[in-house]
């Protein structure tokens, strides 16, 4: 399962139980469209940290990093690149 597929599954399981995976576009704005609120964002961040074994630092808490499945996937790739390059 790709990162994007895992992210999409989590978002659907937690926030959009009536949506089929093929109906959730990777660029769908989860924040602007009210799918994920501030508490949901904290839940999403905790899941990203746990599932992908990453630390999300205060400087990473830009909503744009968690706005869509694609943005989250790109954030994970960038965070892993920083760890690998450390």
UniProtKB/TrEMBL annotation:
<protein>
    <submittedName>
        <fullName>Acyl carrier protein</fullName>
    </submittedName>
</protein>
<feature type="domain" description="Carrier">
    <location>
        <begin position="2"/>
        <end position="80"/>
    </location>
</feature>
<dbReference type="InterPro" id="IPR036736">
    <property type="entry name" value="ACP-like_sf"/>
</dbReference>
<dbReference type="Pfam" id="PF00550">
    <property type="entry name" value="PP-binding"/>
</dbReference>
<dbReference type="InterPro" id="IPR009081">
    <property type="entry name" value="PP-bd_ACP"/>
</dbReference>
């Amino acid at each position: 399962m790709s990162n994007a597929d895992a992210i999409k599954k989590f978002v659907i399981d937690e926030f959009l139980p009536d949506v089929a995976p093929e109906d959730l576009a990777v660029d769908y704005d989860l924040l602007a469209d009210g799918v994920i609120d501030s508490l949901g964002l904290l839940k999403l961040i905790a899941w990203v940290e746990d599932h992908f074994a990453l630390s999300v630092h205060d400087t990473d808490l830009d909503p744009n990093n968690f706005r869509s499945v694609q943005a989250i996937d790109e954030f994970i790739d960038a965070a892993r690149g920083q760890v690998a390059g450390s």
